[in-house]
Amino acid sequence: MTTPRANYTTAGDLWPGWREDVLTGKAPTLYPIGDGELRRIEVGPGLVNLFGGAPGAGKTAFTMQAVIDALRLTPTLRAVICNVEMLPAMLLDRQLARLSGIPLNLIRYRRLTKDHGDRIATAMSALEPLADRLCFLKPPFDLDNVAATADAFGVGGQGGLIVLDYIQRIRPPGDHGDKRGSVDATMDYMRQFAAVGVAVIVVSAVGRSKDSRGRNSYGEGLSLASFRESSELEFGADSAFILTPDEEGDADAVTLKHLKDRYGECRDIALRFDRTRQLFTAPDSAGDPAQAGKGKFRDALRAVWDRTPPAGEEGADDDQG
Predict the structure, then answer these.
(1) pTM score, two decimals?
(2) Domain ranges in the chain?
(3) Rounded to an integer, what distance in angstroms lies between the CA atom of residue 273 and that of residue 17?
(4) Which of 20, 244, 314, 315 has its CA 20 to 30 A from that of 8?
(5) CATH 3.40.50.300 holds for 28-307
(6) How confident is the model at residue 172 (pLDDT cuts 50, 70, 90)?
(7) 113: burial class by Cβ within 10 Å (0-12, 13-18, 19+)?
């Protein structure tokens, strides 16, 4: 039997470089995903963020809002989206609704009128500059394609973001026996992507749990153990969050439960989710897309909102998440 070879480093060996970095080094690179409380969510090179929620909770809406705002706030960032359930055009429709303030149903069914013109034009002007830095995976939805696309699109290292929505549906290479083994492997690959400097956002389904009355629920009982199929999800993530509905029955109130943070304090974030316009806002914002912007875009959008009536909003009842 071969004697294992020791492999280690001492604190003394690390000390000079570590001390110099603490005193003169740079802070970690982070990609802000919004203003106010949303700035506390750390997305950046080497970090894996895990987001979950019940069906219809707004997981995709939240992560796409985060990606679009991250691209806008970090002009060098590039992103690859692997979404197994929605076509790219539908995802863009949602962002157009969010940024314009026009109900999604009017955009989805192409019921726009001339009264919407200014808002649509301003929102389009915000989205268009991001178009060449955002790509959407086509089938097959597997990690081989994710990796190849990331390399081809220039997201294979520092300055890139990969989104898996959602992880239970994205196949890793090889045979892993069952769904649990497959998700374990996929999350392990995500850690490897992060190790070379990619920022990773993973969206996960969750299972029901018991509430305070012993009922099966997607609400108050959700925890790290609620992520479906694999404990590797909770171990592999640097930060983990679950979108949960308001227990008092307020349809727009949701809590982004902060369940894990490898590098800091966990602190829940109270949000409002306007499903009609696919917009998440934190309580310290003014509740319109202008608060997610900066500079000329924010000023232009606010001016458009001030002078344009929200015409033709009948039938605006879309509640997709």
Answers:
(1) 0.86
(2) 28-307
(3) 46
(4) 20
(5) yes
(6) very high
(7) exposed
